[in-house]
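Hi W.,

Here's what went into the run:
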Amino acid sequence: MENPRELFQIMTRRFGMLNKNCCSSGGNDLSLVQSHILYEIDRLDQPNVQQVADILGMDITTFSRQIQTLVKMNLVKKSQLPEDRRIHILSLTTEGKYTAAAIDAEMNQYLEEVFSHMNEFEKETVLRSINLLNNAMAKSTVCCKPLI
Amino acid sequence: MENPRELFQIMTRRFGMLNKNCCSSGGNDLSLVQSHILYEIDRLDQPNVQQVADILGMDITTFSRQIQTLVKMNLVKKSQLPEDRRIHILSLTTEGKYTAAAIDAEMNQYLEEVFSHMNEFEKETVLRSINLLNNAMAKSTVCCKPLI
DNA sequence: AATAATATTTGCAAAATGCAAATAAAATGA
DNA sequence: TCATTTTATTTGCATTTTGCAAATATTATT
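Here's what came out:
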C-alpha cells in the first residue's frame, strides 16, 4: 500500500470538501469552523469559552470573536456563571440546535451516499477502523491532547 | 456505534491538529494549505495552475496568490508553456522538493506514533479501510469530483 | 479580423488569524 | 485585609486569507 500520510491526506481533503458544502443549512450560511463550533457546543455539557477553544485547537482570541458572531446570528448563547463570574458558559439557542441538527443530518446523508459505494461489511469495517483510529489519536502524544 | 458523522468529525479534526504542527520543516514556516499545495504539485505530473486549484477545491484567485507566495519563498517554480502561453506549469524547486519530503517524513513519523497505540493487524485494517473510503469518495457525486 | 473561449492575475472589500495588551473577577498570601 | 498573582475573556492592531468581479493575456472559432 502507499504511504500512510498519502492516504490520510487524501481522505481528510475529501472529507473537507464534503464538509464545505454542508454548512448552509437553515438559511444561515456557516463557515466550516463555525459548524465545528456548533457541533462541539452541542456535544459538550455546559462548556465554557476556553474549553471549546482548546478542544478545537483554536486560538482563544479568534474563538472569542467567532462566538460573538454566532451570538449575533442567534445560534449561540453565552451566559456568565454566577459562582465564578470570570467564566462564560456556552450553549446553543433553539435555532442553533436546529441548525446543528440540520448540518448533522446533511453530513450523514452525504456519508450514506459515500457508503453506498461499498458493501455492508466494508462499511462496518471502515466505521470500526475510524473508531480505532480516533482512540489511538486520543492516546497520542503528538496531537489531540485537549479532548474529551 | 455512534453516528458516522461524529466519527469523521473527530477524526478529521485530530488529523488536522497533527497537520498543523507538521509544516515548519526546513526553516520555512508553511501554512496547512501551503503544505497541501506542495504535496499536490509534487504528486502530479506537470500540472498547471487551474488543475491544482481544482484538485484542492480552492478558488483559483486565492490559489494564484498562494502560488505567488510559494514562488517568492523559492519552493515552487512557475513556467509558461511554450505551446500555449496561457498555461503555466507548476513544479517544485529543489528546496521545495526537500521541504515536501521533510513534511512527508514528519507526518509519517507522527502517524507511526499514532499507530503504535494499536497492533499490527489493527493498523493494517485501518489503512485498508481508509483506502476503501478514499475510493468510495472518489466515486461519490456529492464531493471530490475533481481528482486524479 | 472580430468574437468567443480559456488561463491566469489584479482590485477590492470582507473575514479570519494571532500576538500583545487590557479588562474583569477570583484566589493567594503576607 | 489588602496587595499580588492567577485565570477567563475580550479588545487593539496588523497581517493573512478569502472570493467575487473585472482585467489581462493568449488561443480557438467563425
